[in-house]
Write a structure and sequence with these properties.
single chain; ABC transporter involved in vitamin B12 uptake, BtuC; 14 helices; globular; membrane; transmembrane; ABC transporter permease; ABC_transp_permease
Length: 305
């Protein structure tokens, strides 16, 4: 039972990384912008967050630095694709490659660095419940904030005027422009906010999830988060549940190894990526269903007349 409780707790932590990044990408795509640069943005943000905590000892400043790094790279992406009209897919891939290379170069001096002792968190009384207390109620505050963020995003998208405008921009930017809304500025703001959330996911990886810095430590989570938005049909609650599903698959490899299952570690490490491919293959069999849920202007440039 204790091993299953640990698996549940680690699933929540691993899922938080994917949920934060995928929620950020969902905001981008709801505005009609495809961001393929999430992997590179998360790596640069992870380095920024880790370096900030090393020098200041304050993990919350590390999160702020990670969000700022993600937002800055996202702003660059937004300026290129929204104002200069560059191809969204090519620009995102270029940004991802840049982030991978830049983080590897700039992070050389932090490979051996160690973070200061970080505080342990537990909800009063609930954290003392046998088994489930350690799994559910001794998580980092960001785990619970991610759940709250999901609920807040549902409210924003479907219960507020601003959320309606954002979705309108993603569905028909021409119509939104005709009604007087600044489509390009709305898209840029959505891209920057989404980039900040991707940055927060990167900062969480480097300072909480695996508190160290190594080259390429995001390990494809940016791409999994991108797939997760499609898997969740652009719905925040489904994003959160899907993130926990993929997080559970990721942590299952360690659980199986700990219980003595005789399977090659390389095969177990493939599990989350195989799951991503299988899910996308299953979803792609019904393109009509995807088109019914996908923002109509996703990936399409907009040039105000």
């Amino acid at each position: 039972m204790e091993s299953y409780a640990l698996l549940l707790g680690s699933t929540l932590s691993a899922g938080t990384v994917l949920a934060l990044a995928a929620l950020g990408l969902l905001i981008n795509e709801r505005a009609g912008i495809v961001n393929l640069g999430a992997e590179g943005m998360m790596l640069c943000a992870a380095l920024a967050g880790f370096a900030t905590v090393v020098h200041t000892g304050n993990p919350w400043l590390g999160f702020a630095a990670a969000m700022a790094a993600g937002a800055a790279l996202a702003a660059l992406l937004g300026l290129l694709v929204i104002w200069l009209g560059t191809n969204q897919y090519a620009t995102g891939l270029a940004l991802s490659l840049f982030g991978v290379g830049f983080s590897a170069f700039a992070g050389i001096g932090y490979v051996q660095a160690k973070l200061p002792e970080l505080p342990q968190y537990a909800l009063p009384w609930l954290g003392d419940i046998p088994l489930l207390g350690a799994a559910l109620f001794r998580q980092h505050p960001l785990v619970y904030l991610t759940m709250a963020l999901t609920a807040g995003l549902v409210w924003f998208l479907y219960r507020t005027r601003a959320g309606l405008v954002l979705r309108a921009v993603g569905e028909s930017p021409e119509s939104a422009h005709a009604l007087g809304y600044p489509v390009r500025r709305i898209r840029l703001l959505a891209v920057v906010v989404g980039g900040a959330l991707c940055g927060l996911a990167g900062g969480y990886i480097a300072t909480v999830y695996t508190p160290l810095w190594v080259e390429g430590m995001v390990a494809g989570r940016g791409w999994i988060a991108l797939a997760l938005t499609t898997f969740a049909t652009w719905r925040p609650v489904r994003v959160l549940l899907g993130a926990y599903l993929f997080g559970g698959v990721t942590m299952l490899q360690f659980h199986l190894q700990a219980t003595g299952v005789q399977v090659a570690s390389q095969l177990l490490s493939m599990l989350p990526y195989v799951a991503t491919i299988v899910v996308l293959a299953l979803i792609s069999r019904n393109p009509v269903w995807i088109r019914a849920n996908m923002p109509a202007s996703l990936g399409k440039p907009f040039h105000p007349g």
